[in-house]
Each structure stands twice: as structure tokens, then as C-alpha cells.
Amino acid sequence: MTSSSQDNSCYDVFINFRGVDTRDNFVYLLHDDLKRDGINTFIDEEELLEGEKICPSLLRAIRGSKILIPVFSKRYAESKYCLLELAEIWNCHISDGQTILPIFIDVEPRDVRNQTGSFEGPFQEHQKNSKSTSIVDGWKNALKEVGNLKGWPLKGDANIR
């Protein structure tokens, strides 16, 4: 990690996730365990409503975190906000060297990187409805690159205990 990203760190860990899939089970347990171990962790407590933008403080939290944990789940690709965050996560990894530790809950890494399986339909909808192909191309690249990273596939009721 570069010294500039370490010096500007406001969190040890940023968790990127689709709330409806994982907020009340895996992410809650992960956040609780990290906090208990004294690890300063950011999770977005609010679900963004349609039409809302990712706030600058959320982008600062991504940029200011040492470790970025995307938690991919079956409905992850339905959320353009998850995808926007993921693109920022990938950009930070490339530019500042933050560590990315992907977790795959009931999805295969190949489906993430290729936008197949539960990622295919929602991703096609984003492509069809997007006004900017460059934004969707950025999401596609981030999914491909992060899906290629070594991560942790979990099956069933993902429980970290």
C-alpha cells in the first residue's frame, strides 16, 4: 500500500454488499466480529433509494480504507450502487494499492467476472437502461477484475462463526 493511502486512512475495512441479501446475516456478523477485534470498519447503514447518488462521504470512506471487502451475493448485480462502489473499489486498488478481499456468497466467482448466472439478467438491464456505456463498461471491468482475485466462496446460510 502506498504511504499516501495509509496516511489518509479513516477506516481499516470498507464492506461493500447488497443489503437485502446479506445485511442481517453475514455482513452483520462480519462487522460485529471485526469491531470486537478493534478493527475500524465502515458499512453503509442506509439503502439508497432509486435516483439517489452515492454521497461524497461514502466515496471518501472507500478511498480512505486500507482493506476493501466486496461481498457478492445473488442479488448484488441488481444494485447500480453496489456496482458504482465496486468500480471505485477497483480504481482505488489500481491507483493506491488498497487490498481487495472478495467474498462470494452463493455465487461463483466465474459468474461475477463473466456476468453470468444471477449476474446476467440484472447486468443486461443496466446495459439497456444506462445513458452512459462508459459507466457500465467500468462496472463490467471491475466485476471481471475483482472476480479474478482470490476470494472466499461461501455456500448456504453464510455464517462466519
UniProtKB/TrEMBL annotation:
Keywords: Hydrolase, NAD. It catalyses: NAD(+) + H2O = ADP-D-ribose + nicotinamide + H(+). SUPFAM superfamilies: Toll/Interleukin receptor TIR domain. GO terms for molecular function: NAD+ nucleosidase activity, cyclic ADP-ribose generating. The keyword Repeat does not apply. Its EC number is 3.2.2.6. It is an enzyme of class 3 (hydrolase). Residues 9-161 form the TIR domain. Signal peptide: none annotated. GO terms for biological process: signal transduction. PANTHER family: TIR DOMAIN-CONTAINING PROTEIN, TMV RESISTANCE PROTEIN N-LIKE. This is ADP-ribosyl cyclase/cyclic ADP-ribose hydrolase. It comes from Protea cynaroides.
